[in-house]
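Anyone up for a design puzzle?
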């Protein structure tokens, strides 16, 4: 996860200039720096905890990311473009309201007896 890599590099850079951040503070900083889409996993990680360990937070986040990628690859999203499902065109009347207009299946075809 790129976010954790960047975070770790920042912690190392701070340590190189003698700024020490406690492990639990690092874990909390990492969690608070995550995007809003991680809100549920953050709540899960923090629930019922008196202390946090950076290693546990990182492994939980990596597992979550791995599961999310597997779910995304198994359930691809399909997007349809074009007409609506029933083959109708949308026409606007003079009043500006939309009306559905059937395409008609037999247009342009002739029946012979």
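Challenge accepted. My sequence:
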């Amino acid at each position: 996860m790129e976010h954790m890599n960047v975070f770790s590099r920042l912690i190392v850079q701070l340590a190189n200039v003698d700024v020490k951040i406690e492990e639990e503070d690092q874990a909390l900083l990492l969690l608070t720096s995550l995007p809003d889409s991680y809100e549920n996993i953050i709540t899960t990680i923090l629930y019922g905890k008196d202390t946090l360990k950076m290693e546990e937070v990182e492994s939980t986040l990596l597992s979550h990311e791995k599961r999310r990628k597997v779910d995304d690859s198994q359930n691809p999203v399909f997007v349809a473009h074009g007409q609506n499902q029933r083959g109708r065109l949308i026409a606007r009347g003079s009043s500006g309201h939309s009306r559905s207009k059937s395409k008609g299946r037999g247009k342009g075809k002739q029946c012979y007896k």
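A detail worth pointing out: The longest helix spans residues 54-74.
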